[in-house]
From TrEMBL:
Residue ranges constituting the Fibronectin type III-like domain according to the UniProt record: 33-103
PANTHER family for this protein: BETA-GLUCOSIDASE
A GO molecular function held by the record: beta-glucosidase activity
Protein name (Swiss-Prot/TrEMBL): Beta-D-glucoside glucohydrolase
Length: 161
């Protein structure tokens, strides 16, 4: 495995991403290899698997033969379902793509940036529980000012314990 390349620096919903690499048979015999492509978010805010299989290809090579392999993944496959928003979301951030013969042997890695135009925090309504308000920094600031002025709660008492 060598020479990994990704066809773009950033991805968004609706795109397809192609990861290419060179596979060489360095043995003395004809052989077959199942090349596997995995993805993982480097700094995910969601609970996700450590890595996820996205594509694979079985390749047969003669001794000493090299071949350029390309695996394509729809970016929509990287999304997760947000139950609060009731929709599929592509999380923003760095996504690492890894290539190798199995999940514990991934010698090639390359990163792209996932872009998203969906608000990072859930919408706040009358029935939104405070825990969901407090995860949004802007809403948390308003909530703290409200608790100080209207409810007369001191600064130390507003902090989580």
């Amino acid at each position: 495995y060598s020479d990994i390349a990704i066809d773009r620096d950033s991805i968004q919903v609706g795109d397809k991403i192609t990861v290419s690499f060179t596979l060489t048979n360095i043995g003395e015999y004809r052989g077959k290899e199942v090349c596997q492509l995995y993805s993982r978010y480097l700094h995910s805010r969601q609970k996700r698997p450590a890595q996820e299989l996205r594509a694979f290809s079985k390749v047969e090579l003669q001794p000493g033969e090299s071949r350029r392999i390309s695996l394509t993944v729809p970016v929509d496959d990287l999304r997760y379902y947000d139950t609060a928003r009731q929709r599929w979301i592509l999380e923003e951030g760095a996504v690492q793509f890894c290539v190798g013969s199995h999940s514990r042997d991934l010698p090639l890695q390359a990163c792209v940036t996932a872009l998203n135009n969906v608000a990072r925090y859930r919408l706040i309504a009358r029935d939104t529980q405070p825990i969901f308000i407090l995860e949004n920094p802007l809403a948390r600031g308003y909530f703290n000012r409200l608790s100080a002025t209207q409810l007369h709660i001191s600064e130390p008492d507003r902090r989580p314990h």
